[in-house]
Write a structure and sequence with these properties.
The protein has 60 residues and is an all-alpha fold. It has a domain of 34 residues. It has 2 helices and no strands. The radius of gyration is 24 Å and the shape is rod-shaped.
Length: 60
C-alpha cells in the first residue's frame, strides 16, 4: 500500500473521479435546506399576520 496513493481508502478519502461525480450531481442538500428555511420563515410570517396583526384590527 503506497502512503501517497489517495485514490480512496478506508479513512474516507475520495479520489478525484469520485469527487467530480458527486459535484456533478449538484447541491441538492443545500437547495433542500434553503427551501425548508424559506417555508419556515413564511409560516412564521403568516402566523404573526393571523395571530397578531389581524386580531388587533384597524388602527386609526
Amino acid at each position: 500500500m503506497d502512503p501517497n496513493d489517495h485514490s480512496g481508502d478506508q479513512y474516507g478519502n475520495a479520489s478525484n473521479d469520485e469527487v467530480e461525480r458527486i459535484v456533478a450531481q449538484g447541491p441538492h442538500g443545500a437547495i433542500a435546506v434553503a427551501g425548508v428555511a424559506a417555508v419556515v420563515v413564511l409560516a412564521i410570517w403568516i402566523g404573526f399576520y393571523f395571530l397578531v396583526f389581524l386580531p388587533r384590527g384597524v388602527i386609526h
